[in-house]
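User: Can you predict the 3D structure for this chain?
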Amino acid sequence: MTRPRCAAAPPSTRLLLLLVLLPAALALSSSSSDYCGTTSPGAWTPLASNGTQQVELLQVIALFRHGDRMVATGSGPCWQNDTAEYVCSMSAAAAPSLQPFNQSELVGDLFRKKFSIGRNEYNGTCGKGQLTSIGREQHVALGSAYASAYGDWLRAHVPSLHSAYLRSDDVDRTQQSSQSFCSGLIPPNSTSSYNIYDIHTRDESREVMSPNTALCPVLDRLYVEYATQPSVLIYFKKNVIPLVHAISDALGYTVHVWELPEIFDCANVKRCHGMPSPFSEQLYQQVCALFFVSSRARCSTFVPLLV
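Assistant: Here is the predicted structure, written as structure tokens:
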């Protein structure tokens, strides 16, 4: 989770409303212990002038990814003989808006999405990649932290979320993370009608919040060029192949290199939720180290090319 931070502006600078961005692509932190996030965003540095010049805050841009979630990759279960059951207590309710330009409507019937028990890719009541109640709490806390950091300015310039520009890709967990952040930033009022706030999004084929080879075909060529560099091939043979063998030994069956992203995702979800895992701490850290490297160069995208 991103901490709110205000910095002092130089003389005569006007600091540039609210832009909320939620990329759905997997973004790894620099430390494996940070991956799970927290519901306590931490302290913030208050905005201050240099004593001689007034500082006018004009804009706040908040950029963050979704909160804690369910396993989002693979087709379940995580690995052979994995009988873990995932229970999600959070759900989402919505209704069609028949007047799309209205900013509020009378409360009518809301319809809740509910995943059928025993009919999902992973055991339990969770949908694949679903935002969890922990993920919601994380973003409510983050929104509250921003409200504390920019309280006076926020109340004066963003009296309601209609004054904000919200942007997300078209994935449930990122949409819900945005909604949770906004609930912490400007808590909703209890009224007989509900407010409607637009979250701007795009079709997946036109999305630019994560690498899109359809819009930027050169990415495919760059990925292949990088993957076939001698240094990458050496790294793969020296580090990835032994790691795959170690994971196979831990799981008791042969694992293929293209299964690593799913295994990594599952290992993280289990770790974040205190669930047992067949991996030792050392092996888990080795898997993390591989993906902290690959996330910077998209190695996980072209690992199969190196087999």
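The CA atoms of residues 32 and 289 lie 8 Å apart. Residues 230-251 form the longest helix (22 residues).
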